[in-house]
Amino acid sequence: MYKVQLSESLFPTQIDDVVREITIGELLRETTAQYPGSPALVEVDMEGMTGRRWNYTELLADSERLALALSSRFEQGERVTVWAPNIPEWLIMEYACALSGLVLVTANPAYQAKELWYVLEQSGSVALFLVGEYRRNPMSKIAIEATKDLKAIREIVDMEDEEALFQSGDRVAKLPEVKPGDAAQIQYTSGTTGFPKGAVLAHRSLLNNARFYASRARVHADTVWVNMMPMFHTAGCGMVALGSLQAGCQMLMIKIFDAADICRLIEAEKITMLNGVPTMLVAMLEHLDKTPVSIDSVEMVSLGGSMVAPDSGGEHQKGLRK
Predict the structure, then answer these.
(1) Opening angle at CA 78, ends 160 and 112, nearest 5
(2) In the chain, at which residue ranges do the beta strands (DSSP E only) sit?
(3) Which domains does the chain have, with CATH numbers?
(4) Tens of pLDDT along 60-115?
(5) Helix extents (H) in 35-190
(6) pTM
(7) From the centroid of its chain, how far is CA 205?
């Protein structure tokens, strides 16, 4: 090891904000108390059409109901894997796990049997929550193959089966004390150069990172935030979902990205905030050049991963520079 003693920082300590000691469940209740009837979540299906909607009171109620059901089936600290696309049940599961002290393990819905097996086995998961299929990936069939030798898996649950999702177990349904430093999630890297690595993320780190991001993006209670990023990724379930929760604003959950659908939704739902990767923005700008719609509601576009070419999207890029 190198013996190094640093005497000064290259970047000064930021004193414009603080690190909050709070859990995801506590923040959900705090935000609901402040914005009980405000819109919280909107479902957008594979065809780009809006479906079910929740305000914060309804979202908290469903999250607490599921949390109690989970507490009757699992012990605090146990790990459960969510293997699904962007559906409202993903977010409700995220909040329910936080309230019941479970650790949510995220899994890419494009995984095949060997990849899913690795995440389940390496994370020590005791349950798998999934959907039947997504984009022609037969997930129920893959799950059977991936879990046949995993004795730790006690449940395989279809998240779109309400009765199965909210079923009661043999334990007393009681929500435990959860602390900010407790593990909330395990997220896996892509594994492009080897096996994916699981990163254990605490309530404190997830929430404060999302809060700092949302604050710098000037998100507020009237923001309408479209979540185009996959929920298994930290951008989807962390920065956007928990960023929206920080502000008490509305989030549209997009099941699958389609540039034409997003552009139409911007006009129809008066979307003010978008975040994604540059290829998404370029596709939207190219669509807008062919099929113009009003994007006057947009206040902020946040991108990561790579640079966006200055000439992308022709005239419509100018409209997003405000």
Answers:
(1) 50
(2) 39-44, 50-55, 79-83, 103-107, 127-130, 155-158, 183-188, 198-202, 224-227, 250-254, 273-276, 300-303
(3) 24-256 (3.40.50.12780)
(4) 999 999 999 999 999 999 999 999 999 999 999 999 999 999 999 999 999 999 99
(5) 56-71, 88-100, 113-123, 139-147, 162-165
(6) 0.92
(7) 15
